[in-house]
Specification:
Blueprint (H helix, E strand, L loop, with lengths): L1 H93 L5 H21 L6 H24 L6 H21 L11 H20 L9 E3 H10 L9 H12 L20 E3 H5 L5 H4 L7 E7 L4 E7 L3 H15 L6 E7 L3 H11 L13 E3 L2 H8 L7 H8 L5
Antiparallel strand pairs: 1-2, 3-4, 3-5, 4-6
């Protein structure tokens, strides 16, 4: 009985273990099936990715090939642009027209000016900043203008008209925001719109219009100074700063037209000069600075009293004579006051200065003036017998001329 029970328990335990093993086997089989299914999915995904990679590789090869072709096209286009630029510049040079590269610079200055012009309207009550911005605009337009001169071209008449009109507006705005009343005007939207419209016109003509070239060579002051020095038209020790100040004075000369020597600008900027004009004259600023101020040198006086007046006038000779006669008759009772000598010269003022130094020792004691002289016959012969023609210094001044 005991053996039977023991055997029965062993059999029962073995049955349980068998059941457990079967269950484990089923679990392992299920898990294996699940993993096998997942593996199949992975393999399918891997196959799909491999196919996608192959397509991407093929596409990449195509893009690399296309990129190479595009690069070739770009290189060819750059070569074409370079060739066309050379042709355009050559044609411009051949036709004495503005080079395309220089025209691009003109457009940059116009576009920058447009940006600043628009800013002026939105600055509120910032008066100081507005004035500074106006000066910046003037500098930009001065650079635009200089582009013509540095390339030896005349400032186009239409461009000059537009620049002068803009400058007029800028001056009025500047005066207003600096607190002046005369020739002053506040910035208004209508004015800004108008300035923008004429700047667009300037943009168009700067790009397409044909410009006229100067026949003479145009050079900056620095170049002119060096050339005149090399040609010994000015002394080696001559100061460049002094020369610049002299040219600026000539640029603003009021008595005679110096446009054949210095370019008259719309906006202040670098000074440009005509080399040929300066080469054809003897540069002497002492004579140049008063050239054309007076046109006539006169000597009035009395032979009887040896009293004479040396003076100059531009064109009012009769008035000068009557005034001199009136002064003379206050000192002398005689009525023999008359014209002794009249010399025409654009350097009349320098001639007068020279004669005053020459006859300084003969100043008349009765007159509190540097223009009245007591001249005896030897001194008077200088004028009557034209002995001044033997005076080298006098003739140098008299013969000085800007006529070419």
């Amino acid at each position: 009985m005991y053996l039977y029970t023991k055997m029965k328990n062993i059999i029962s335990r073995l049955q349980d273990e068998l059941i457990t093993v079967r269950k484990s086997k089923e679990l392992v089989s299920n898990e294996l099936n699940s993993k096998s299914s997942e593996l199949q999915k992975i393999e399918l995904e891997n196959t799909r990715l491999i196919e996608k990679c192959r397509l991407l590789i093929d596409r990449n090869k195509h893009l690399v090939s296309s990129n190479y072709l595009y690069k070739e096209k770009v290189i060819q286009q750059e070569a074409d642009i370079s060739r066309l630029s050379i042709l355009v510049n050559y044609q411009s040079s051949k036709n004495q027209d503005f080079k395309y590269k220089s025209r691009k610079y003109l457009l940059v200055f116009i576009e920058d000016t447009l940006v600043l012009i628009k800013k002026l309207l939105i600055m509120g009550n910032q008066k100081i900043r507005r004035v500074k911005l106006i000066y910046q605009i003037k500098i930009l337009l001065a650079e635009y203008e200089s582009c013509f001169y540095k390339n030896n071209f005349k400032l186009d008449t239409d461009a000059k008209r537009i620049l002068e009109e803009i400058n007029d507006y800028l001056d009025k705005w500047k005066n207003y925001y600096e607190g002046y009343i005369w020739n002053a005007k506040s910035i208004e939207e209508g004015d800004i719109n108008y300035i923008e419209s004429i700047l667009q016109e300037l943009h168009y003509l700067s790009l397409y219009k044909r410009f006229e070239k100067y026949k003479e060579r145009v050079v900056e002051v620095e170049v002119l100074f060096q050339i005149l020095k090399d040609k010994r038209k000015i002394q080696r020790k001559y100061s460049f700063k002094k020369f610049c100040n002299e040219i600026k004075f000539i640029e603003k000369h009021k008595y005679i037209n110096f446009e054949e020597f210095v370019i008259n600008r719309v906006f202040p900027g670098k000074t440009y000069t005509f080399l040929k004009s300066f080469n054809q004259i003897h540069y002497d600023f002492k004579l140049l600075k008063t050239y054309g101020m007076y046109h006539l040198l006169y000597i009035y006086g009395s032979y009887q009293n040896d009293t004479f007046k040396i003076g100059v006038t531009k064109n009012n000779l009769q008035n000068r004579y009557l005034r001199a006669k009136e002064v003379y008759e206050k000192k002398f009772a005689s009525s023999d006051f008359q014209e002794i000598k009249l010399i025409e010269s654009f350097n009349a003022l320098n001639l007068e200065s020279y004669l005053k130094r020459k006859f300084k020792h003969c100043r008349h004691p009765l007159f509190e003036s540097t223009e009245w002289f007591l001249l005896k016959k030897p001194e008077l012969n200088y004028f009557i017998n034209e002995e001044y023609q033997k005076d080298a210094e006098f003739m140098k001044i008299l013969g000085y001329s800007l006529d070419k």
